[in-house]
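Follow-up to my earlier ticket, as requested here are the two runs.
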Amino acid sequence: MMTSSNITSQFLLEKIPAEVILQLKVALDADKTITREDRTISAATRAAIDAVFEAGGKVGLCTGRPYAPAARDVLKIFPPESVHVVASGGALVTQTGKRISGREMTGELVLELIAAATTNGCGYWFGIEDKLYINSTKKPDFDKFLYPMKIYDASEAPDITHIPIAQMSISELNANMRAVLKEFETKISYTVMPDFKGDDYVDINAVGVDKAAGLRQLAEYYGLPVEQIISVGDGLNDFEMVGASYGVAMGNAVPGLKGIAKLVIGNTDDDGLAEFLLALIEARKILQAK
């Protein structure tokens, strides 16, 4: 791990392989990487993402969010040609949500998990295209966080028996539901994480799917080794992504992620991501001029 509180182009030239800088392909976590701690996105971050595209590079999401809540705010700052990994690696999509590739769960499997969550008094949610369906005491938080996006009650969802689902989540976790998740481990991948209030919830994907798997889909789309993609994250669901690529941790990242990252940059509230992206662009210009 290499850490700097003052990222410059020269520093990056010394630390990042030239071929990685020249490709200028970047995948970003959303919450507390692109967004600040208060969930806003700074003008500096917006401008830096635009600058990557203006320089001929590409930058997109590699987020745990399904497409629908990502489209509510974070996706709005990207240009139309952007490509994104959503739902913790469950799908690779265009800016408009069109599926490019993915490894989704079957609707039958999701229905089994919903039944188990309901039996054990847990809440749940899942996305289908641009709609998010929820049955949880957390719904008021979603309504507030994602306003003015409409959040649908799970009772309004279509029959998902034959609809592939990129990801579902379960909240209000208890010991019984945690035991059920272990019973499903041959069929699912999952990560338990704290939400913004510190309550545990779990993101669930098809077995073998995580952000690293999604990043490999993105690398295949670009025709690159995954090691030549720069990923930036901060949380517990970013470990695989950061480990698979040229992984960068935010200054506000969980300690374990900083430990495996190749580089640690500034805090999100200090525009650490914007500083990094702009220095990366300048480093690339220096290499191109040689």
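Run two:
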Amino acid sequence: MRLATIDLGTNTVRLLVADLAAGAGRWRVIEADQRVTRLGEGLAATGRLGEAPAERTAAAVGEYVTRARRAGAERVAIVATSAVREAGNGREFAARLERATGERVTIVSGSEEAALTLAGVLAGLDAGDGEALVFDIGGGSTEYILARDGAPLEAISLRLGVVDLAERFPFRGPVDWPRYTAMQAEIAGRLVAELPERIREAAPARLIGTAGTATTLGALDLGLAAYDPGRVQGHVVTRAGVDALLARLGALTVEARAELPCLEPGRADLIVAGTAIVLATMDLTGAMQMTVSDWGLREGILLRLSA
């Protein structure tokens, strides 16, 4: 069966078209793509989706639906996350997409997003023995899922995303380190205040990062000239490696960051904020390394479609 998923995020829209063998839980990727549309631009300040980001995002979703159909997808699932569920006009935007594409748009809750992300990550990685903490840094939210033997023990979606952070702590030039320190202190304080005790007090055997920040850091740590999901999947970045990447990124202007291989131009102004969330998470858990997962929410959606 050929299926397609479209992950409609606060910063990025992701397409996955794959052939799934009945009951196998495995698939062959036919087409995969992603585009930074910054749907959540200005959302934290206004509480609504802006017309320009909505137009950009609608165009990307429409194109992806067309590509999925041309690829022969029997079913297309569009799943909207933080920006659409939080915005005052989010449901209106979803209805607009449904009219334009003829496909249903499902707005998932934070807990549903966390569960789908965990399923996608664990389909591609062996979490190993003991507890694993999976975290997904998004444009509008960050999901934390504590799991043992593939089963979730605790999960939460925090309204902590890189788009809002980058808007409030912009680093267009080289990073102003006192301002960066203030941003990371805010992140650390929110993690302590908002994460459930079971996650705060966990000492996971494995910390797994998924989505754009984690995969970008993995690709940069590997020194890839072009993004290679097969090499990024399962790559381990040490704490010292993340510190070194922050120093490297922080020395550059946003234009120079955008020229780095494997760093999309639309992510250049967000990567410093995302790295701060990674480091605050490592500090909280005491983790000295992060395993990178190229698989995440869109693969979890695919699994749900195939069930």
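The only thing I checked on run two: The domain at 2-107 is CATH 3.30.420.40 (Nucleotidyltransferase; domain 5). Let me know what else you need.
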